[in-house]
Amino acid sequence: MDVIQRIHSLYPEMTKKQKSIADCLLESPEDISYITLTQLSQRTSSSELTLLRFCQKIGYANFLELKTAFREYTQNMVKMLSAPQYFVPDVTITDIDGKSEFLRQICREESEASKEFFSSLDLISIISAAEAIRASKRIFICAHAISHILAEFLLARLRLLYFDAHLIDITDANDTQEKLNQLTPEDLVIFIAFPKYYYPLGSIAKNAFSRGSTLMTITDSPSSPTVQYSKHLLLCHTSTKVFYNSLTLPMALANLLLSYLVIDLGPDYRSRDLSNAPTNKPSEQ
């Protein structure tokens, strides 16, 4: 029995206060992986002692055990909602001519997608996002699965330009909570989100937003889970005939964003205040 099932099974036996705590936990179960006992106390208007008694009521010795149970639930949801990495063609293609023609179709679709992307590109959004990067004290990049490739590219280029940039391993709940606890209103958090979206992503964005940090999202759709908390939104198409997510256009978008930063900073970027720049800046690739 997972933590959600436990709460539901014991709900009829709970006091009015315990039910209000349970309702809060059930409303956004993925949030619990990234908050402290003090934060949950504030969210539920309950004393920490009341929360500890609630934990014991549903079979956990302390808040840490409860949070561990919610993290296990969240990870199970991630596995359940994970998508395959590619589409299977409707018909098996065995001959070389058929495979070649299928590849030509992919070429045409990639070409059309690129033409549409560049013809409809909102340069003002890119410039605004670049200015947000330049204005921030620190930059934290959140990505999952294939998005990590784009995140690492951004990280390397930003450090090359002497920005204090960091990755958040959102698959590691401890690392995520530690980084979230460091956030201030001077920081920028960049979310890279493509289907199927990482299950706890909305909760991570909500937590970062609550700390006053500026959020930016690079994604394929305005309905992406972090968009509602983001001040800056950069959109690009990612789906192809074969893969759920192609990085062709996201890489082009990231390159344009970074290119504007280079143009904006000019040749004297090394003379900027480096007091917060990371010491392990990678060399140019």
Name its key features.
Arc Repressor Mutant, subunit A, Rossmann fold, 2 domains, 5 strands, globular
What's the average pLDDT? 86
Structural class by helix and strand composition: alpha/beta
The portion of residues forming beta strands comes to 5-15%
From the coordinates shown, what is the CATH architecture of the largest domain? 3-Layer(aba) Sandwich
Shape: globular
User: CATH-wise, what's the superfamily of the largest domain?
Assistant: Glucose-6-phosphate isomerase like protein, domain 1
CATH class of the largest domain: Alpha Beta
Q: How many strands in all?
A: 5
Number of domains: 2
The Cα radius of gyration reads 22 Å
The helix tally amounts to 11
Distance between the termini: 50 Å
Helix share, percent = 40-55%
- According to CATH, the fold-level topology of the largest domain is Rossmann fold
* Sequence of strands across the biggest β-sheet: 2-1-3-4-5
Instruction: Point out poorly predicted stretches.
Output: none
Largest sheet: 5 strands, parallel
Order of helices and strands: HHHHHHHEHEHEHEEH
3D architecture notes:
A 5-stranded parallel β-sheet has the order 2-1-3-4-5, with helices on both faces. With 285 residues, the protein is an alpha/beta fold. It has 11 helices and 5 strands, in the order H-H-H-H-H-H-H-E-H-E-H-E-H-E-E-H. The termini are far apart. 32% of the residues are buried. It has 2 domains: 3-81, Arc Repressor Mutant, subunit A (Orthogonal Bundle), CATH 1.10.10; 96-271, Glucose-6-phosphate isomerase like protein, domain 1 (Rossmann fold), CATH 3.40.50. The model has no long low-confidence stretch (mean pLDDT 86).
